[in-house]
Fold this protein.
Amino acid sequence: MRLERLRLLLPPLLTLLFGISEASHPCDQISGSYNDWSSNAISKEVVVVGGGIAGLAAMKTFMENQVPNAVLLEAQDYLGGRVKTHREGSILVEDGAEWINGGSSNRLYGLAQSLGFLTQPLQTSDYDWRTKTSEGDDANAAGYDVANEVFNECEEDSVKINYRETGYGQCYLDRFPNWYDNGLTSPDEKAAWENYLHMWVLKDTGTNTWMDVSGRDADHFTDWGEDKWNQWSQGFDALTNHLKSSIPQNNIKTSTPVCKIFWDSDPVGKVLVVTATQEAYLADYVLVTASVGHLKDRHFQLFDPPLPSNYQNNLNNIELGVADKVQLGWQEPWWDTTQKKPLNLHIIFKNFNLPAEQSWLYGIMEFLSIHQQTNMLQAFVTGDKARQMENMSSEEVKEHLLSHLRRVTGQDVPEPTLFRRTQWEKNVWMKGSYNSYIPVTGDAAGLTSREPLAKPISNSQGVKVIHWAGEHTSNTRYGTVDGAMDSGETAAFAIIDDMDTYY
Ligand SMILES: Cc1cc2nc3c(=O)[nH]c(=O)nc-3n(C[C@H](O)[C@H](O)[C@H](O)COP(=O)(O)OP(=O)(O)OC[C@H]3O[C@@H](n4cnc5c(N)ncnc54)[C@H](O)[C@@H]3O)c2cc1C
């Protein structure tokens, strides 16, 4: 009897506490019409949906520009969204964003520096750097150099521009075979290094194949050249705390999922927002910053009336990739007990002979010690392989990783003292991690940039009541924290401008 009650209680508890869904959604219990909820609604100038970096940056902007009657509603029990730092013992890991890409060109570089939290990247020579086959043999490290060169060339805007009509992966396919033949004498490793490069690219896109992303979409992205790999020394959540510090506590509500947005039902043109906690807010404007994964999944249930068909089409034509992390920590670095350098282990697969249940490991091209910690390793797994991993038990995932590491290194890898894996796709408030991308089919269907996704929606009185922010609405820095932050500020200023016009 007790077990049966636990079985019934567990799914909603998991969803509310960790956003992990089994079957039902926390918003499924919310019903009722505009009239049922409007009488007890609390009046607000603005409701911000979502407390990731976009939502927090928007709230900070409202607070600093005399819009005090704004509230931020966050579904989960923490702020930061895809910025999520975890500390355990002496180890610090990031479930989400990790790097300040682009060096000092990135606004977060200067911010982290001014807050005293900027780390400079380690050099390759600081690492115990290895190239191995999945079966434990040494691999020709020159294969890595070719993959690296092709990777960097295809990142350049002048190159990307030639891949507007095809999947972005064509750029790599056009270059890798000849470059490899010209530079190397290990023909038996050629296919394995090409596969390595493919997995490397997927680590950026979160897609199933490198042909999924439209070249035209990639062409909009502002790339500041070869990555500099700076980090937040005390964890990326220093940014969350920095933004939060400008917002009074009363203006933020966590564990408060927004379930319904009645955006064209109010006689004087306001928007009614209803939460899973049975609260209602009547706002002049609503700024939606939920991930595009959540919006794709739930917009039919969330918006009443449904969103205009052109906006729905745009949501259909953008996707959110899945990139998960697996993280292992030990008291001591077992790979090198004397020098204690961090490890950078690159793996190529010449044979694909793992048992079917371990096939998700084919997606891992690298284990890397992160955050200058010499006693931990992290790897990315993406697309369908990430989905496969998310659906296994944590114990199974750990066992697969340990046997893989033992085979590849030939070393006696001890049980880790820390083991974690992310499940971004299972999280009902995310439904993915990064990149948001326009697939080749989306581009063909007419969505060629993010601008339409950032465009506000007007009610029948012609007031732009629904505004959008979030990484997926940034045309030039989608998939990044700085892009999310920019988008939140831009949308907040647009609302402030509209306030001056209408009120
Ligand atoms: C594994 C991983 C690694 C990454 N690495 C990097 C990196 O190295 N560098 C980098 O710049 N970027 C990186 N990113 C991307 C970066 O984290 C995101 O682009 C950015 O944080 C997105 O911020 P956002 O505010 O747009 O969205 P989110 O962070 O997704 O915030 C949206 C918020 O809305 C909430 N929400 C959703 N639905 C509702 C609802 N109905 N009601 C209320 N709240 C709701 C969610 O819980 C969430 O908190 C990474 C992301 C991941 C997942």
Summary: The CA atoms of residues 102 and 225 lie 7 Å apart. The chain has 17 helices and 21 strands.
